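Input record (one chain):
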Amino acid sequence: MEDFVNEYLTTLKFEKNLSDNSISSYKNDIHKFLDFVKERGVHDVADISSKHISDYFYMLRANGLAYSSMARNMSALKGFFRYLDSQNYLKEDPTLTLTGMKSERKLPDVLSVEEVELILSQPNVEDKFGLRDRAILELLYSSGLRVSELLNLKLSDFFFDDEVIRVLGKGGKQRIVPFGSSAKKWLTEYLYKSRPLFENKLKSGNYIFLNNRGGKLSRMSIWKIVSSNVKSAKIEKDVHPHTFRHSFATHLLEGGADLRAVQEMLGHSDISTTQIYTHIDQDYIKQEYREHHPLEKF
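The corresponding structure, as predicted from the sequence alone:
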């Protein structure tokens, strides 16, 4: 069986041009599986069945292997047996019935409405930096933007009368996203009172949010703004800029918003990505039940 493995790895190296690290990973995963079947008396790849494959993954799961590692193992074995089948070394590919391994999805942290309001109230709006930071935090929560989307917003992207923004999302796809009256108030304050103090005709390029030198803010700057105000609010959760996006989506769904409308606002191409927030919503409902149902208090 070792000869088959070496032949396959050589193909990966010279025909697929994979890195040495990737090839090493494939080699380790394949060898672990072959050791597994050898212990069960199998010494020829032609004798490996789909049951050997399913038993192996059952063993991996029972041993607590992470879903991401199981998915990597599955990819390695599928590639190996697909190659053997293409070279007519097998009567049948034993991985054909193997279904894809869905990665385990960790639900993101979400802020409560009260926590959001507390964070939003932290910046000193009498200061040019504080006014800018308040506008940033308001917009992150009001529209659920990704940090990259927020950083690239220009003056021409805002339609204040309609209370919507034109956003350039992943893959260069444009979408129209609404923003609320609170965000509108603080954006207007920032644009009239604070942004002119940052503006530099050579560097600003009509970007909305500027740094002290008049250039576009960096991703790290947004992280620092969020971290600083979360710390001031004395909130212990692991909060980062994307937490505002998670909270935006969750609060909309808790309030009865249509899932497809939320999908559109977030710019998700696949609704299954948006559906993760329905799980968060269900957890919230269960928590409310446990806290308020009379029999749950005993």
